[in-house]
Amino acid sequence: MNEIETSELIQLKFSKIMQTRTYTMVILGTEEKRFPIYTDPNVGRLLQLSLTGVEKPRPLTHDLVTELLLGLKVKIKQVVINDLQQTTYFARLFLEEGLPNGQRHIVEVDARPSDCITLALLYGAPVYSTRAVFDASIPLQD
Asked: What proportion of the chain, given as a percentage, has pLDDT over 90?
């Protein structure tokens, strides 16, 4: 069993995006606690475009990934934010492939939390945090 399988998972809700010229904060959390994940401002703009449904002149990277997954009949099962080292978060993207015999094949992929969160929001997939990461995250002060 891997570490994620034995960890307590806490389901997170997407709260909002705060954008500046130098960084983007993606706010996630629960009723108990919200915390920011910082990312590049370009990633934040792409996330905002995707969430608002603005028509883009050309497909973006997340659009390409979405089309690939749809074409391969693979869906995003969940995202788990599984590590925090200093101020850097790490995440795992869980993909589910339906096999011809009716069974399911799960693939776990290491990915940036900002990419995982974007795909989860586009697909309506749940985002989780391990208890250790949730407890170690610095809460957002309202």
From this structure: 48
> 3-136: what CATH class?
alpha beta
Burial class (CB in 10 A: 0-12, 13-18, 19+), 130: buried
Handedness of CA 74, 11, 80, 48 (dihedral sign): positive
Name the 3-class secondary structure at 120: helix
**Residue spans per domain, the chain:** 3-136
Tokens coding 88:
């850097």
Residue 2 has pLDDT above 60, yes or no: no
Mean pLDDT score of the chain, rounded to an integer?
88
Report the C-alpha gap between 73 and 96 in whole angstroms. Answer: 9
pLDDT of residue 58: 83
